[in-house]
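Hey L., structure's done. Input below.
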Amino acid sequence: MRKIHVIQHIEIEPLGIISDVLDAKKIQVECTHVYRGDKVPINLDGAGGLIIMGGPMGANDFEEHPSLLDELRLIGVALESEIPLLGICLGSQLLATALGESVYSANKKEIGWHEVAPSEGAASDPLMKGLCDPFVGLHWHGDVFDLPADATLLASSSQTECQAFRYEENVYGFLFHLEVTGPMISDWTHYFASEVEETDQSVEEIKSQTRELLPQLHERGRQVFERWANLIK
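Output:
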């Protein structure tokens, strides 16, 4: 059976719909739950892929979260082994860091439902092809990064130039969220309600938009994640 390793930073940021995709493809998941005190592994022990999930900490918060350094080392192992790698939100920031880019604070947080515009490079990308038209994605971040050297830009938003990228053939970073479920968004708007207020939105506004927009996001997300899962040997 194929298997992958997942790094999960907090309880309310799990795999979301990625879990359904992996189950359907009979891909075994081994997970390091950092918030429970699990130690980040030194190697991938035969795993055919690596996913780094999101979290409220910053990619540069090494003193407060020293395990981030261990994650960077594990990303390095995955890059050297040339196995499929997927970084989401914080995970994409750590991936950009591992590829030599700096992660820095944006002028303002990008939270809620905002348009994502696929780039020209997305049209021929193994994961993004067919998603050429702008669509509305779920965002929840305050830090950003520039496109890593030798990477292909896949998507931007009006506020953030680099929303998604591919490095080499099978390494992907998504700053925005394609994996979220209704319960996840409910948790985020509850626990991070003060962040929502910083962006002059209301929790109810995001919840209302979720009811309308989440089904279309799931359609796109499943397509992207199924294609990523097909890369796993």
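The longest strand covers residues 103-118. Helices lie at 17-24, 67-81, 90-98, 182-191, 193-198, 203-229.

-- N.
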